[in-house]
Amino acid sequence: MSSFITELVYTAVIVLSCMIMWLRTQRIYELSGHLGIKYFRLSMLFFGLAFLSRFGLSVVNLYSLPHDYTVLLNVAFTYCLMAASLFLVFSLTWKRFERFGVVEGTLFVAAFVIALIEFVWIPNLIFPLQLGIVGYAIAITYRNYLDSRGQKGAGMRQLYFAALVIAFLGYLFNFLVIYIAPYFPWVLYYVDSITVVLFLILLYGVLKVTRDG
Amino acid sequence: MAKKRERLEVIHDILVAVRENHNSIKPTRLLQLSNLSPQMFRDYTEELVEKKFIREETVSGKKTYSLTDKGYEFLEKYKTIVQFIDNFGL
């Protein structure tokens, strides 16, 4: 029961952070129509949904609900997490892909196909993929930070880069936890703490800019 | 060579030009102030009218543009928008 309450608090912090980021950026997106802002918002929306699905799995376990729910929530979790990561990277790279005509529909399809492959053929496929995607995002944000050094906004770019490094470590530990958690269950708390720190950094970044809006 | 203006910057410049002309400006004058080609100017003004940032009015047979509330709000929030895009490298 205590782990369920921990999961509840953990989910509440992350989902609430995502919801605030989604709402705080709504008006600036409506006014600007900027695609980077759109994809960043979609990423936060899907992260929120992913963690809600994960919490759903805890509810299913607690009340011993039918196995079908576990399957459904697992697929939903993988789909949302993949969509969130893909949109996060796309928010940083959309201008490069614009000329190839890559549209957001492609990302939805890719996330769905990956969720399906993970469920049917390759369990835990999501972890190496997430590491690759976040690793790519780290490279881009690091370059963005270097480009902006000494300029206004460099501090936040540095923080965003740090947040993604934290995300990478979170995914890496998560990957390892699958194999070592049975022996060291406390490791999970560290992974969850890392994730909470990541979302609080992102929330801070969003609130810092939009506080006057 | 001067850096090519981003879409948002062009919109900002057009709206500022309208505002600074007592919120009523003729197309020819706006074209001069916006530094755009006639085709680009037409595309932008059509988009801005369609998205209700500016309104097109005909006074004494002459067409003028003026800002709507949404246009003013865009100008008010422009700094926040640019800062957000810049901070997150979007």
- CATH names the topology of chain A as Rhopdopsin 7-helix transmembrane proteins
Question: Any idea what the shape of chain A is?
Answer: globular
Mean pLDDT of chain B: 92
Q: Give the CATH H-level superfamily of chain A.
A: Rhodopsin 7-helix transmembrane proteins
Count up the domains of chain A.
1
pLDDT < 50 stretches of chain A: none
- Compressed to H and E, one letter per element, the order of chain B equals HHHEEH
SSE-based structural type of chain B: alpha+beta
Task: Please tell me about this protein's structure.
The complex is a heterodimer of chains A (213) and B (90). Chain A has a single domain (2-212), classed as Rhopdopsin 7-helix transmembrane proteins, CATH 1.20.1070. Chain A is mainly alpha-helical and 213 residues long. Chain A has helices spanning 2-24, 26-32, 35-62, 67-98, 104-120, 126-148, 154-180, 187-210. The radius of gyration of chain B is 14 Å and the shape is globular. Chain B has 90 residues and is of the alpha+beta class. Chain B has a two-stranded antiparallel sheet. Chains A and B meet through α2, α3, α6, α7 and α8 of A and α4 of B.
